[in-house]
Amino acid sequence: MRVGVPKETFPGEQRAALVPAGVKKLVGLGASVAVESGLGIGARIPDEEYRAAGAAIAADARAVVADADIVVRVRKPDEADVDVLRAGVVHVSFLDPFNEKGLVKSLAAKGITGISMEMIPRTTRAQKMDALSSQANLAGYVTVILAATYSPKMLPMMMTPAGTIQPCRVFVIGAGVAGLQAIATAKRLGARIEAFDTRPVVAEQVQSLGAKFVQIDLGQTGQTEQGYARELTPEQLELQRQGMKKVVGASDIVITTAQVFGRPAPRIVTRDMVEAMRPGSVVVDMAVESGGNVEGSVLNDVIDVNGVIVVGLGNLPSRVARNASEMYSSNIVNLLDEFWDKESKQLKLDSTDDIVKGCVITRGGDVVNETIKKIL
Predict the structure, then answer these.
(1) How does DSSP assign 105-170, residue by residue?
(2) pLDDT at res. 70
(3) pLDDT band (50, 70, 90) for residue 228
(4) 20 to 30 A from 364, CA-CA: which of 22, 190, 199, 284?
(5) CB of 369 closer than 8 Å to CB of 361
(6) 213: helix, coil or strand?
(7) Is the pLDDT of residue 259 over 80?
């Protein structure tokens, strides 16, 4: 079984789909691995480390994928990438299948088995493969580091002969994987933290990290079977905004992480809420790539709204590219290992398996994922 790993071409993408430790594990399973020269440059991993782990180094992406049975990427392929893939190859990456309908159809038409990493089920067995969570975890950390960078205030309380510096007030909206990591990171830096989530069930997790859970009565909300927040009605969104308005206005830093899987991010923080914040306050919109939680946030830009800095930088895990690559690589290797037949040294994807049913989008010339099939 030949595994090919091309270099990422998306602007600003620093992650690598496989790190040397992952190469070594796959070689140990009996696979041969070829990586494009410069694969790890963004994560500061030289070709020599890949070679030492057992990978062959290819000069370009075409040479990597030409004979590959499995192709592994971080980002979704473009049409040119799909064109050079062989029929029957297994392609593993983030695919954004809810929005990339044309890509899904192209993969199916070419006879490619397309595995979408964001569609890995959130089950105990699949945790080690859950790339969406592993990358969100890192993104939550980065939001706090960005906020601290742009804020004119330090986060911890400090008592000095010159006076006492009060702790920074941080408000985290959304207590999923990213939000909980943001809370934990801000707490380590000594901030005073409040947090809100539409799922009351996470209040205990928020409090266990040392943050205060903001109570807002939205009526019936809850979460999906996969653990994601359910989409709110327009009336519930307005109740949420009104309930948060006072907390936002009193905060030095607001971090928004609220996303609804497969849909545009809900607009939570309105322009008037931003304008009501004190000059020097910082808002970090982690959901800017899927439409944004903050009115006026701009993808890959930092803007000033009456003295309030609104940070809309995208691809946050790529800012800690070494760790993001290590975690994503581990997710990929765990996925392949789960369905690796040790005797034949082949990947065998059982179509009745819950994980396979969740993440395999196209196979044998058809769209086989039931959820995506209904959308198409």
Answers:
(1) HHHHHTT-EEEEGGG---STTTGGG-HHHHHHHHHHHHHHHHHHHH-SS-SS-EEETTEEEPPPEE
(2) 98
(3) low
(4) 22
(5) yes
(6) strand
(7) yes
291: left (phi over 0), alpha (psi -120 to 50) or beta: left
Q: Which domains does the chain have, with CATH numbers?
A: 2-130+320-375 (3.40.50.720), 140-319 (3.40.50.720)
Whose tokens are 């796959």? That residue is 26
Q: What local confidence, expressed as pLDDT, does residue 302 receive?
A: 98
Residue 35 β-bridge partners: 5, 57
Flag whether pLDDT at 110 surpasses 90: yes
Look at the pTM and tell me if it is higher than 0.90: yes
State CA 20 to chain mean position distance: 22
* 50, HSE (Cβ side, Cα atoms, 13 Å): 27
Neighbours of 21 (CB within 10 A): 13
- pLDDT for 231: 66
The dihedral over CA atoms of 147, 302, 284, 236, expressed in degrees to the nearest 10, equals 160
Residue 348's CB is within 10 A of a number of other CB atoms, namely 10
**Alpha-carbon gap, residue 328 to 102, rounded angstroms:** 25
The whole-angstrom separation of Cα 137 and Cα 11 is: 22
Q: 14-62 pLDDT, tens per residue?
A: 999 999 999 999 999 999 999 999 999 999 999 999 999 999 999 999 9
210 φψ region: left (φ > 0), alpha (ψ -120 to 50), beta (else):
left
User: Tell me: the pLDDT tens digits for 130-140?
Assistant: 999 999 999 99
* Active site amino acids: 122, 127, 130, 133, 228
Cα 304 versus chain centre, distance: 26
Record the tokens describing residue 313, joined without a space: 């930088």
Average pLDDT over the chain reads 93
- Write the CB contacts of 228 (distance below 8 Å, at least 6 apart in sequence): 122, 176, 260, 261
